[in-house]
Amino acid sequence: MNILQCGSEALLVDVDGIDAVLGLYAALSDRLPEGVTELVPAARTLLVCFDPAVIPAQELADLLAGTEPVPAEAVRGELVEIPVYYDGADLAEVGEHTGLGEHGVVELHTAAEYTVAFSGFAPGFGYLTGLDRQLHLPRRAIPRTHVPAGAVAIAGEFTGVYPRSSPGGWQLIGRTEVPLWDPARRPPALLRPGTRVRFRETR
Amino acid sequence: MIEVVRPGPLTTVQDLGRPGLAALGVGRSGAADRRSAALANRLVGNFDGAAVLETTFGGLVLRFRQVARVAVTGAPCPIRRNGRGEAMNAPFTVWPGTELALGTPSTGLRTYLAVRGGIGVEKILESRSTDLLAGLGPSPLREGDVLPVGHDMCGPLPAVEVAPVPDPAGFGLIVRVVSGPRDDWFGPEALRILSTATYEVTSESNRVGARLAGPPLPRSRGGELLSEGMVPGAIQVPPSGQPLVFLADHPVTGGYPVIGVVLTDDLPVMAQARPGQSVSFRLVPGSLRRHAANVPGAAAV
């Protein structure tokens, strides 16, 4: 664990990987240390924002260094099942690239259980880990200017669902009608760091 | 109720934003120059969290349908109440039918207008702020919009005639920076360049960030950084080497290395930097033990 200063009101904790990030996030978010205002998990880091009037940076750094991450197998968030119409604009191409065919892509994508590693890009957009290696593909060379809300997509080691229409460069393999983001809901995001996800094919 | 006669180039509703939701992909947002927004609220006896109007480069014209106590702070601009001049940083009363017009600021970029009780638009996720990047909160003001006045006052009207605050500087700005978290992605030259060069704020700047032009900051390693959490004031350096300082509506995570972060106390200065204005950075020691020695010339603690 490497703790880096990030201005006067944040520390960036650099760890080994997503399991370590989620473990530390789970350990801290369970009972937020006094003075901590925000936790932002990412692929290999946890950003910890704090109020220096409540806790000095060094004291927080010592506290973080002494925090025992929750073991990966114990970080088990709620399981969400998402029904998907596998008719994405890139499905045929993904099937060809991987040599799996459209049907094979759907089979692999629905077989795995995913975990939301972190959010970003847009409110409610979760980066889901657990994607089968055979489906690891680069982003599209030229991003689309318009990806519809509910689009189910893959890129690199991640899969995810676009919570609203936006530009985007991921490979679109399907779509869902489940609302990913609703400001009136508490919490507003369906997918939060630690949430487990399964995709089910629907027609 | 307040009617928007003309919104100017960009006027948004802002309060203290949406802290605590970044893990869901929602940034904090809120007033870009929090100090000026807080002063405006205090001058009319509002809570700190009351919503104000943030107008960029002036040009805002309002018509009041009710009596209201208002205060204008931040970038100093001519204030016309039915054609008669009013002062910045000084609360005054407007009567029903009054037209209030803000001209172009002489220095700075963002002017704040508070109304006693606050702007009473609907809250989204506990905040009335417009987050232009995330697309949350009320749309930027349009001609003909009608804004309700809220009830976010915290006591009687304060007996203040004028608050003695300096205007945003009209010349070269200096802001303090703590190096890191990714200064190790840059050559030893980069921190020296950052702390000695002068950068110009470009017209590409907005509430997301201030884009700067000047000597490029050379990277010492290739490859891509995995996306990580970002903070307001983060100086992100894309492959071009031209830095960008994140402001209120910054993305929650970003994939370019951050060479340093502007101190929170100096963010209001950065938020008032207008295109064409020059900015220079002063490195100051961080508060972590290991970090205190990273600044050239700083005493080891």
From TrEMBL, chain A:
Q: Which UniProt keywords apply?
A: ATP-binding, Hydrolase, Nucleotide-binding
Query: Which EC class heads this enzyme's classification?
Result: hydrolase
Q: Where is the Carboxyltransferase domain?
A: 1-191
Q: Return the EC number.
A: 3.5.2.9
Q: Name one Pfam family in it.
A: CT_C_D
Q: Which Gene3D superfamilies match?
A: 3.30.1360.40, Cyclophilin-like (2.40.100.10)
InterPro entries named among the record's database cross-references: CT_C_D, Cyclophilin-like_dom_sf, PxpB
Quote the SMART domains the UniProt record gives.
Answer: AHS1
Listed GO molecular functions? 5-oxoprolinase (ATP-hydrolyzing) activity; ATP binding
Q: Which SUPFAM superfamilies match?
A: Cyclophilin-like, PH0987 N-terminal domain-like
PANTHER family on file = 5-OXOPROLINASE SUBUNIT B (PTHR34698:SF2)
| Annotated protein name in UniProt | 5-oxoprolinase subunit PxpB
**Species, as recorded:** Amycolatopsis rhizosphaerae
UniProtKB/TrEMBL annotation, chain B:
**A Pfam match:** CT_A_B
Task: Show the InterPro entries listed in the entry.
Answer: CT_A_B, Cyclophilin-like_dom_sf, PxpC
Q: Which GO-annotated molecular functions does the record name?
A: ATP binding; hydrolase activity; transferase activity
UniProt keyword list:
ATP-binding, Hydrolase, Nucleotide-binding, Transferase
Entry keyword Transferase: yes
Any idea what this protein is called? Biotin-dependent carboxyltransferase family protein
Keyword Transmembrane helix assigned to the entry: answer is: no
Query: Where do the Carboxyltransferase domain residues begin and end?
Result: 23-299
Organism field: Amycolatopsis rhizosphaerae
- Annotated NCBIfam families: urea_amlyse_rel
Top-rank taxon, per record: Bacteria
